[in-house]
Write a structure and sequence with these properties.
Protein name (chain A): Quinol:cytochrome C oxidoreductase
Keywords (chain A): Membrane, Transmembrane, Transmembrane helix
Oligomer: heterodimer
Number of helices of chain B: 5
Order of helices and strands of chain A: HHHHHHHHHHHHHHH
Distance between the termini of chain A: 26 Å
Distance between the termini of chain B: 8 Å
Radius of gyration of chain B: 25 Å
Helix content of chain A: over 70%
Radius of gyration of chain A: 21 Å
Shape of chain B: rod-shaped
Number of strands of chain B: 4
CATH topology of the largest domain in chain B: Alpha-Beta Plaits
Structural class of chain A: mainly alpha
CATH architecture of the largest domain in chain B: 2-Layer Sandwich
Keywords (chain B): Membrane, Transmembrane, Transmembrane helix
Number of domains of chain A: 1
Largest sheet of chain A: none
Protein name (chain B): DUF3341 domain-containing protein
Shape of chain A: globular
Chain lengths: 402, 179
């Protein structure tokens, strides 16, 4: 049975987008008085497009991981993962729009290195430390890297999607395509291992230009992986509730529940590893990042950590909880909001510093992007058969039992 | 209580045993236990084994380790002799909490892992040096044994049970009379 986007889903996503636009409008009017409007708007645009793009790319990473490890359990729900990666072109487009706006308007209010006065000797607020990073952090090279990441992601995504449909239509080629996916999956992991780190440095870490952390890329990636797993489980439970995918059994749900649990721990572990070492060493150039977050966003920052760590740890620890649709949905939605907040503090804490706050514009843009994201992945889901055929491991997936 | 008969039905394939157990249980036979060199996937619900409570114990052991680590470090590093390490606030437990997290984590894992292993051995009565309980040493190598007790299956006669077992593809059948 193929999936059709229900009228209810269409209504809700449209409503979310309308409410989002409305709230953003109110936010823009409310912020038009102070001089931070452009910075506030672009900061939110960056944090939201990065957050939802990163979910799509992490879903693609997860798919590539299944290919490269020749896993069998996921085959029956493969199209759900593919649907989430369907936001990739839109997410890349939104990121490109954000970076174009930053390049051609007041980008220096988000990326300080875009300001020639900071980077060139003799500038009005020349900063030697920032200028020292000029060989890497300059607009042309930034664009070369961004285009390279997005182009390679897009080309590989296109290949995975094409081969997935090809396998449906050509049973004879299934084995050959499977091994091609296996090799391409491994290749994607190699690219992603490097790009996930460097793109986080370029797009997010360079906002706090004086600060650096090698762990940052993994930390951002772990957060987006968790979000991708949460979106997968919620979408799967939603489809199952509507009566699609009848052969998704408790073991499939349990497995993805375990992924939510495990990636939450990975994220918390990396968050803590980064934080504790910097706290212990107490070197001024390293503590700047945390000083800003702790002095001005104490409740949001530590609250976000507790939500993203303690919630999944305590509520998803037992086996029964990882099979319970209600608990999974509740915990999933809460930590999804927590990870959105994580990305928001990364971007806004660095760019706007103490003047940022959660208001109409922040909520409006998050709701707008969320509506768009859900609509795009549901549309993508309706465009291909809901279950892939001819995959060599399909039978294994149907009888998955743990 | 009269004498009780215990049947030990031996199989050389775990799938055959599983299918046999399914058929027997469907006929109303109660399987007392299965001895196997490795865990047989999906067998527990068929023969009606209770779900293990080892996970709950692991949580309690972990919690013990966590609390002990925190109490111990609070006493050693803050109360008894405030340690000055890199100028960190050494009279406050909460402000030093971050430095204690790795050791707290280690002790949680240590307690959970060791106590769980010991509990496992105790519950299974397999502490080193204890007499072996399995009916046949081959069940630690490549054979699988299903145990039935006549007292559990009072609605069947000895003969009936034996016949039913024979149909399930066993390779050997052993009977033992115990008091």
């Amino acid at each position: 049975m193929d999936y059709q986007v229900s009228n209810k889903a269409k209504l809700w996503t449209t409503a979310a987008m309308v409410i989002g636009v409305l709230f953003t409008g109110i936010g823009i009017i409310a912020a038009s008085g102070d001089g931070h409007l452009g910075q506030k708007f672009l900061g939110n645009l960056l944090s939201n497009s990065f957050f939802f793009f990163s979910i799509a790319i992490s879903a693609l990473f997860f798919l590539a991981l299944q290919y490269a490890t020749e896993s069998g359990w996921y085959v029956y729900i493969k199209r759900v993962l593919e649907a989430i990666t369907g936001f990739l072109p839109m997410g890349s487009g939104l990121l490109v729009i954000t970076f174009l706006s930053l390049t051609f308007t007041n980008g220096s209010h988000i990326y300080m290195w875009m300001d020639p006065e900071v980077m060139n000797e003799g500038g009005s607020h020349y900063d030697a430390l920032s200028a020292g990073k000029g060989a890497y952090l300059n607009t042309p090279f930034f664009w070369i890297r961004t285009v390279a990441y997005l182009a390679i992601y897009y080309i590989m995504w296109k290949g995975f999607m094409k081969r997935s449909l090809e396998m449906d239509n050509n049973p004879d080629l299934a084995e050959q395509l499977h091994f091609k996916n296996y090799r391409r999956g491994a290749l994607f992991l190699v690219f992603f291992a490097i790009f996930s780190s460097t793109s986080s440095w370029d797009w997010i870490m360079s906002i706090d230009i004086h600060w650096f952390s090698t762990l940052f890329g993994w930390y951002v990636f772990a957060g987006s992986w968790t979000s991708a797993m949460v979106v997968t489980i919620i979408l799967l439970l939603y489809l199952k509730k509507l009566g699609y995918l009848p052969k998704v059994n408790e073991s499939h749900i349990h497995d993805i529940g375990k992924w939510v649990f495990a990636t939450s721990f990975l994220w918390a572990y990396l968050w803590f590893s980064q934080y504790m070492l910097i706290w212990y060493a107490n070197i001024p150039e390293e503590t700047t990042y945390y000083l800003m977050r702790i002095e001005h966003y104490k409740i949001l920052y530590f609250g976000m950590f507790i939500i993203n760590f303690a919630f999944p740890m305590l509520l998803l620890m037992s086996r029964d909880a990882k099979r319970h649709a209600g608990i999974l949905t509740f915990v999933g939605l809460v930590i999804l909001a927590g990870h959105w907040l994580d990305v928001w503090i990364m971007v806004m804490g660095g760019s706007m510093g103490p003047t940022a706050s959660i208001g109409f514009m922040e909520i409006g843009m998050a709701v707008l992007f969320c509506g768009l994201f859900v609509r795009v992945i549901l549309l993508k889901l309706s465009q291909s058969p809901l279950v892939s055929k001819n995959h060599p491991f399909l039978d294994e997936s149907l009888h998955h039992e743990i | 209580m009269g004498s009780n008969v215990v049947f030990y039905a031996m199989y050389n394939d775990d799938d055959v045993l599983k299918d046999g157990a399914k058929k027997l249980v469907a006929k109303g036979v109660k399987v007392a236990d299965v001895f196997s060199p490795f865990p047989i996937h999906g067998l527990d619900p068929i023969i009606g084994l209770k779900e293990t409570r080892l996970g709950i114990m692991a949580f309690i052991y972990g919690l013990t380790g966590l609390v002990l680590a925190l109490i111990g470090m609070r006493y050693m590093m803050v109360t008894d002799w405030p340690m000055n390490i890199g100028g960190k606030p050494n009279f406050s437990f909460l402000e030093n909490m971050l430095a204690f997290v790795p050791i707290t984590f280690e002790l949680t894992v240590l307690f959970a892992a060791h106590a769980m292993a010991i509990t496992y051995f105790l519950v299974n009565k397999t502490i080193p040096g204890m007499p072996a309980e399995n009916p046949d040493p081959r069940t630690t190598d490549d054979r699988f044994v299903m145990e039935l007790r006549l007292s559990d299956n009072s609605k069947f006669s000895e003969k009936e049970l034996e016949e039913m077992l024979m149909e399930t593809g066993i390779v050997e059948l052993d009977q033992k009379h115990i008091k």
